[in-house]
Design goal:
The complex is a heterodimer of chains A (about 240) and B (about 100).
Chain A: H1 8-17, H2 19-38, H3 43-53, H4 56-67, H5 72-82, H6 85-94, H7 102-108, H8 114-121, H9 129-153, H10 159-165, H11 168-183, H12 185-201, H13 207-226
Helix pairs in contact in A: 1-9, 2-4, 2-9, 2-11, 3-9, 4-5, 6-8, 8-9, 11-12, 12-13
Chain B: H1 6-27, H2 35-53, H3 56-59, H4 64-79, H5 84-101
Classes of the chains: A mainly alpha (about 240), B mainly alpha (about 100).
Chain lengths: ~240, ~100
């Protein structure tokens, strides 16, 4: 096994892979910083929430609940529900991360957000702990810095910029998904099915649950349709390395 | 209700965010899942990505065409094997023009 602690190449690969994500975080972080200021948080509190929680959706929800006067227990419970999907993400990503010990796992799992999950997921083959640290580093710094910048900006971005920037993270997700779709059309079937199910379930369930249940159904359906013999993802399996 | 200690709240939020992210690593330890489960977990990566895109992209603007156009532009750029950095910045650029034009 390689010596992961000193593996600079893989860390650099993680950093490079995270550049798109780093840019995608800026508008969201800035918006969060602006809203935090409007909501009555001071600079330190604004930054502290980003550094401690490091979860976009949860932080927006918390700001909203704090300003509407909801109690702390309800806020924490809501955040917990919103974050259930990360359990699925870590379970899935765990299969793709090669090596590392419990200690390392417990550190880099702090940085598993929707976006870092997405970037690591679509990498060719396996990734390792140094890669995860490189990826997390860019994401964390970008998120914290843009949160602080948003607070300091105060006045806000021009509406045109703000509106067009709102597409950033979705462009990132699509940009990450498409190369896998090109390699295997089954990926498109699974992703579309999950998106459709999530849209439908959103009408009857909270967003936290609808994405968990919708994704699980789509993933199981994918296995039933495409089977386990063939690696439908063309990605990460030692059985079928088609690079 | 005014929350007296925001840092305490953040610490609790930190715990309920971190635990679901960390737990699978501790819980499943060195478990080797059977092929069916492993395949489901692989598919799950793409399923979750699909769920992160839809329906969210259609809801970012009151005008659903905004998300449809943005999504299509990103798809085309990515399909042309353009680096994801430029997929993101290119899509932002096109949507800035769209916002100005509408």
């Amino acid at each position: 096994m390689a010596n992961y602690q000193l593996n600079l190449d893989d860390s650099l690969r993680g950093i490079r892979s995270a550049i798109g994500l780093g840019i995608g975080y800026v508008p969201i972080g800035v918006t969060y910083g602006l809203l935090a200021r409007t909501g009555g948080l001071n600079f330190l509190e604004t930054l502290a929430m980003s550094l401690m929680v490091f979860a976009g959706a949860s932080q927006f929800i918390a700001l909203n609940l704090i300003s509407t006067g909801v109690g702390p227990v309800q806020i924490v419970f809501t955040v917990f529900m919103v974050n259930l999907r990360h359990f699925l993400m870590s379970t899935s990503l765990r299969e793709k991360i090669d090596g590392g010990n419990k200690m390392l796992e417990m550190i880099y799992s702090f940085g598993i957000t929707d976006e870092t999950f997405a970037v690591a997921s679509v990498e060719d083959g396996e990734v390792n702990p140094p890669y995860m640290f490189g990826l997390n580093l860019v994401a964390y710094v970008s998120w914290a810095a843009s949160s602080g910048a948003g607070y300091l900006l105060g006045g806000g971005l021009p509406t045109v910029l703000q509106e067009s920037l709102s597409i950033a993270l979705y462009a990132l997700f699509i940009g990450l998904l498409v190369p896998s779709v090109k390699r295997n059309s089954g990926v498109l079937v699974i992703a579309s099915l999950a998106g459709g199910l999530n849209s439908g379930l959103r009408l009857v369930l909270s967003p936290g649950w609808s994405i968990v249940i919708g994704s699980l159904i789509a993933a199981v359906a994918g296995t039933l349709i495409f089977g386990t013999k063939v690696d439908t993802t063309g990605n990460g399996s030692d059985l079928n390395e088609d690079r | 209700m005014k929350i007296d200690n925001l840092f305490l709240l953040f610490a609790a939020m930190m715990a309920v965010t971190y635990i679901p992210r960390m737990l699978p690593f501790v819980l499943f330890g060195d478990v080797e899942f059977p092929p069916f489960i492993r395949n489901v977990l692989q598919n799950l990566r793409y399923a979750i990505l699909g769920g992160l895109i839809l329906p969210g992209i259609l809801l970012i603007n009151e005008d659903p065409a905004f998300g449809v156009i943005g999504g299509t532009v990103a798809f085309i750029l990515a399909y042309l094997d353009i680096d994801v950095v430029f997929v993101v910045t290119g899509t932002i650029g096109v949507m800035a023009l769209y916002t100005l034009a509408v």
